[in-house]
Amino acid sequence: MKKLENIDYRITSILTAEQAHTFRVIPIHIHEEGIDLMGDELANQKKPHIQVLLGKKITIEPISQEILNRYLIQYYPHEFAPKPDSKDSISTREESDIVRFVHKILEEAAQMSASDIHIERYEKEARIRFRWEGHLIEKYEIPLLQYNAIISRIKILAELDISERRLPQDGRIHFQLTDQDIDIRVSTIPGKYGEKIVMRLLTRSQDNLDLKKLGLSQADETAFQQSIRRPNGIILITGPTGSGKTTTLYATLSQLNQPDKNIVTIEDPIEYNLSGINQVQLKEEIGLSFDRTLRAFLRQDPDIIMIGEIRDVTTANIAIRAALTGHLVFSTLHTNSSWDAITRLTDMGLEPYLLAASLRMVVAQRLVRVLCQHCKTQSSEIIFPDIQKAGNIEYHFIPNGCPECYYTGYRNRKAVFEVLPVTPVLKDMIKHQGGDIRKYMEETGIRSLSDHLLTFVQTGVTSLEEAIAHWES
Hints:
- 35% of the residues are buried.
- α6 (92-112) crosses α7 (144-157), α10 packs parallel to α11 and α13 runs antiparallel to α15.
- α11 (313-324) links the parallel β13 (304-307) and β14.
- 36% of the residues lie in helices and 25% in strands.
- The chain is α/β, with parallel strands linked by helices.
- It starts with 8 loop residues before the first helix and ends with a helix.
- The longest helix has 21 residues, at 92-112.
- The strands form four sheets. It has a seven-stranded mixed beta sheet, with helices on both faces.
- It contains 18 helices and 18 strands.
């Protein structure tokens, strides 16, 4: 008999909590011939239904009802609610169950490398979802009677006011696994049927903070390295939320972090602690804003300044002033492409001649899901005729789903970049607000995000559907 403590959570994910409790089974092994489960007498009676549900041949290893109940609580925390005749209160034993359940959620999310945990309640149900590889996956259904107790447990860990349910709150949890320390940013908002909590997992590991591991092509990396070695100017990283901009900035600062450099940052939040760099956490509620902190930075004799995000014309103007007075400035902007960033800044009200004088490079980026190597299959189906014809794509790969990828068809993500250096020609175009920057890129051989995405499809890195989802608008 397989020891249940060692079941891979990727196997248990083939059933929802409701399905596991309804059919009284726990999956323990997936193989070519089918799926092995453990269950009680009721499971054997429902075997035909389970087989239809899973779409594969199944075997059910008998297990006592008592042991099955214990493991259903562990792997599918759905029915550890009080009996129907009990009051709306939580017993000591149930409190202990909730403490263990919350710990299990955090541990499983960390082991999966999930970026966020969503805990939300509706009129007749409550659920927990993990954001994994950029997409939400439903993990657990939870009893409505236990919902507030789970929320309270998380708020206690985050040092929030458990009695305040009418206003949003923000807190942090420090969570330690055997091999890593994780900071968890907790955000609560009041909903119609109860508070919703979102927890963002911020690993302290700096293994990924290496420019050579980001995925820049050799030509793009050379151009980027040349720009970040300049003594002054502005370098912008652009892209939507969750596109990896912050990781690129931290990897850059890690490389530039030398004893002879004074590096200061203003961030919201601080996602990595970098030794040797002076990091400031934004606190708007006490007046510690981007523009106020930037003004103070200029009196701190900095060599390099990192601004978490350029949000308004005031911050942009101070950044330009810093660049023009001998500082190297890094920041992010929410635009779809590199040339959109230039348009956005001029639309904010920046003087084109000042932008032309200070801007050194714009990098646009996305995070693309990589096809699972265990289950992807080749296809010649025409899905997007124009793009497939333009890219000369005779065949492509499609996601299928297997235990290795949690049945999503994708495993891991890969960054794709568009690197636009500000050359004298481009500087003149910015200054006089003339010319088509996109056409200039094509004529000078600068590869766009779409060009790189086509290469990813051609080489089987990702699917056509995933590439189109990140296509430049």
